[in-house]
Write a structure and sequence with these properties.
Elements lengths: L5 H28 L3 E3 L1 H14 L4 H13 L10 H4 L1 H18 L8 H8 L7 H16 L3 H22 L31 H6 L15 H11 L3 E4 L11
Antiparallel strand pairs: 1-2
Length: about 250
């Protein structure tokens, strides 16, 4: 990689992967899927473009798979439950289970027809693979023809690994603070790298809640990002949610 230190490439890849995770947690998950965060038109376009560039995900597909997960939480039909498919399989092959769930989606059956229609009108962002190619090309211009694409590829690996942790570990090990459908766990130890998504028990107890923090030590960077974007005009509404009663109360 020339004179670029391998550690610098890794740092950039991890940093961008963490940022991609935070954007997905905010935009795809708490925004489009659960309407806990609403975006201004400009904010929506920026976050959609970032999602397209760094993950190659079509928002309508992601939302459909996620809502199926909530509908069948840790039961047969859940597309990526470690209880159903096994923890090791979800940790290692999370992306495969996601793509399989997308392919299984019947034509015309979607939770978000407005998103599907919007994507079909966009000749660029409707092609997820093209976003990653554009990101690699841009990175090649900035960091070099080898280093740039390597950074984008590695950040994609980081993103997939973190997604596997959320879908796997957060339905397997941790604390249960609230009664909620499925075997969802509160796992604060990995909250920073998952942008707060590992506070999973809170989310399944109250999916429409933007703020997943229930303890003073919890870290929810996606929620903090929502508050920041609201201040600069990219987010129009953030639903904090009501106080939740724990199973011990």
């Amino acid at each position: 990689m020339g004179d670029v230190a391998s550690w610098a490439v890794l740092v950039w890849a991890v940093g961008i992967g963490l940022a991609s995770t935070a954007v997905s947690a905010l935009y795809l998950h708490r925004g489009l899927a659960h309407q806990a965060v609403r975006f201004t038109p400009v904010g929506d376009q920026i976050l959609w473009t970032l999602t397209w560039l760094f993950t190659g995900i079509r928002p309508s597909e992601w939302v459909d798979v996620h809502m199926r997960h909530h509908r069948f939480a840790d039961q047969e039909g859940d597309p990526h439950s470690p209880v159903v498919h096994g923890l090791v399989k979800i940790l290692a092959f999370n992306a495969f289970y996601y793509r399989r769930a997308v392919r299984a989606q019947q034509p015309g059956q979607t939770h978000v027809p407005h998103l599907r229609a919007r994507e079909e009108r966009d000749p660029l962002r409707s092609r997820g693979w093209l976003g990653v190619v554009v990101a690699m090309a841009g990175a090649a211009v900035i960091a070099g023809p080898i280093v740039g694409p390597v950074i984008i590829a590695l950040q994609g690996v980081v993103y997939v690994v973190i997604s596997g942790l959320v879908n796997g570990l957060c339905h397997w090990v941790g604390d249960v603070e609230f009664d909620a459908p499925g075997r969802n766990i509160h796992n604060p130890l990995i909250a920073f790298i998952t942008a707060g998504e590992s506070l999973h028990n809170t989310h399944h107890r109250s999916p429409g809640r933007a703020n997943l923090r229930t303890r003073s030590t919890d870290v929810d960077t996606a929620y903090m990002l929502a508050l920041l974007l609201r201040r600069i005009g990219f987010v129009s509404h953030v639903r904090r949610g009501r106080t939740l009663a724990s199973v011990s109360s």
